[in-house]
Specification:
This protein has 256 residues and is an alpha/beta fold. The chain has helices spanning 16-26, 39-51, 66-80, 104-132, 153-173, 192-196, 201-207, 216-227, and strands at residues 7-11, 31-36, 56-60, 85-88, 135-140, 178-185, 237-240. It has a 7-stranded parallel sheet with strand order 3-2-1-4-5-6-7, sandwiched between helices. Strand 5 (135-140), helix 5 and strand 6 (178-185) form a beta-alpha-beta unit. The longest helix has 29 residues, at 104-132. The termini are far apart. This is NADP-dependent 3-hydroxy acid dehydrogenase YdfG.
């Protein structure tokens, strides 16, 4: 049990990595601020965390809207004080079409969420962390931030941006005692593919067919490990994939 109670902000907390991370940290009694667009789903996660004994505040917010983030950050600080940790998790992929056939609205949504949303949220937390002289920002990247695959042009670009922003944040903020880390998962079975393929459950299922993907809990375990390092230790990046995945396109599937 980690004895120091932390105030931890988590974006994209209504499902997937964010929800799994919230539940894991709630079990240790940390103060949690949960942010996501879907207020009903967020309220359910808030209740689950409170049942574990955590003081939890849910704040419906869209990371794509800077004003939403500034208002949510202000409310969070008013309720719990400045954040110790930000889990900058909100993100998504849309489409897997060839570049010339892709939907530009998908590009806009991915760039606004994965890049601009990450920036807005990171800036909002960093301001308070600088004032206290400590803090930890954990950006959720992807194996797609290390490689590029067919149909992944803009999604991969946004996750390459997360890697660059993470490095830039670390260089700008380390002098204030702020740690900046990245978690970069490969194939993980959450709502990710269902969102990517706009509700086509069969196509989403086929992404993980014949192999054992990562789970949301696997990523939550990594986030937990990074947070719980001593103050003098900063883990820059953790890259994790299923054992059956060597690269974005090299996957060992049973029967193939």
């Amino acid at each position: 049990m980690f004895m120091t109670k932390l105030t931890i902000w988590i974006t994209g907390a209504s499902a997937g990595f964010g929800k799994a991370t919230a539940l894991k940290l709630a079990a240790e009694g940390h103060n949690l601020v949960l942010m996501a667009r879907r207020a009903d789903r967020l309220a359910e996660v808030e209740k689950e965390c409170q049942m574990s004994g955590s003081n939890t505040l849910s704040l419906p917010a869209d990371v794509r809207i800077q004003h939403d983030i500034e208002v949510a950050a202000s409310k969070a600080v008013e309720h719990f004080g400045p954040p110790d940790v930000l889990v900058n998790n909100a993100g998504l992929a849309l489409g897997l079409d060839r570049f010339d056939l892709a939907n530009p609205e998908h590009w806009n949504t991915m760039i606004d969420t994965n890049v601009k949303g990450l920036l807005y949220m990171g800036r909002a937390a960093a301001k308070y962390m600088i004032e206290t002289g400590k803090g930890h920002i954990i950006n959720i990247g992807s194996l797609a931030g290390k490689e590029v695959y067919p149909g992944g042009h803009v999604y991969c670009a946004t996750k390459h941006a997360v890697e660059a922003i993470t490095k830039g944040m670390r260089q700008d903020l380390f002098k204030f005692g702020i740690r900046v880390s990245q978690i970069s998962p490969g194939l993980a079975e959450t709502e990710f593919s269902t969102v990517r393929f706009e509700g086509d459950l069969q196509r989403a299922h086929n992404v993980y067919k014949g192999m054992q993907p990562l789970t949301a809990e696997d990523i939550a375990n990594c986030i937990h490990f990074v947070i719980h390092q001593p103050q003098h230790v900063c883990i820059h990046d953790i890259v994790l994939t299923p054992t059956a995945q060597a690269t974005s396109t090299l996957i060992n599937r049973t029967g193939q």
